[in-house]
Amino acid sequence: MSLPAAFVSVILIWSTTPLAIKWSALGIGFSFAVFSRMAVGMLVCAVLLAIFRIPFPLHRRALHAYLAGGLSMFAAMVLTYWSSQFVSSGMIAVLFGLSPLITSLGAAFWLKEEALTPNKLAGMALGVLGLMLVFRGGLGLPEGSALGLFALFMAVVSQSLGLVWLKRIGDDSPPLATTMGILIVSLPLFFAAWWMADGHVPEDVSERSAAATLYLGTFGSVLGFALYYYLIKHMDTGRVALITLITPVLALLLGHGLNNEAVLPQVWLGTASIVLGLGLHRWGEQWMKAMAR
Q: From CA 18, how far away is CA 152, in angstroms rounded?
């Protein structure tokens, strides 16, 4: 696949994933929805590993990476799916837009590899301001929205610190194999969560819910990450970072247009603040040099 096609594909997958999460849980409950998605994802992963004959490493570093990624994915996805009962798909995308800022902060303190320069601190401050505006916008929504937003924020923290943990481990296994290992670790946890929260297979699954689950298992859990790793390997980091600027806005528009989700002015302002913070965090130094010239 060409780089432009991969770039557009990742944007489309990540922008539609929050709405698909909302639709997949309709009538079947959040716990069964997330367990089904991961089961489909692991099946797809296994088939792709077999077709392309990709090795599945079992050395100590790889096993450590599977464990770290599995625990992080379980916490992030369970909290995300639970919070989707109370918050819109657009808010899911907006809060996950904070992931690069939280990852950078975790890398600075845990990996000691990034200096917290003034532009990065300013970007983080704008991100926090945007988060506060989004929470303020959520207070006017139905009961449980504030708790849902907090759970969603903790999901973002879990995923972001999980990425830092994986980077600290430094495993060089094939991305698809790493995804498979993470799913092997996390799937029993998702099953246990479903068993304790619900424990029964839904008798009537709507076509929309089934289609959304298959979409998430195939594209959201496997293809999206594989293409993202492909872009990181072959494209400039600055261009890849544009994905996190585009997806929150596009997801808000999709949720409003396809799911009739209300988007309050505070949420738009919060989204703008987060996007500006991401841009300042990533390209602040280049902007300052350009202005100086």
A: 12
Q: Phi and psi at residue 115, in whole multiples of 5°?
A: -85, 140
What are the strands, taking DSSP E only, across 68-137? none
pLDDT tens-digit series, residues 29-57: 899 999 999 999 999 999 999 999 999 99
What length does the chain have?
293
What residue type is 45 in one-letter code?
C
Q: Which of 212, 251, 233 has its CA nearest to residue 18?
A: 251
Cα–Cα nearest to 141, from 29, 255, 258 = 255
CA-nearest of 191, 186, 211 to 22 is: 211
Q: Dump pLDDT digits (tens) for 74-115.
A: 999 999 999 998 888 888 888 888 888 888 888 888 876 666
CB 229 within 8 A of CB 177: no
Give the integer Cα–Cα distance in Å for 108 and 248: 25
Amino acid at 220: G
Full-model pTM: 0.87
The C-alpha atoms of residue 216 and residue 106 are separated, in whole angstroms, by 28
Q: Max CA-CA distance within the chain? A: 66
Of 179, 198, 210, 173, nearest to 60 by C-alpha is: 173
The CA-CA-CA angle for residues 25, 30, 34, to 5°, reads 90
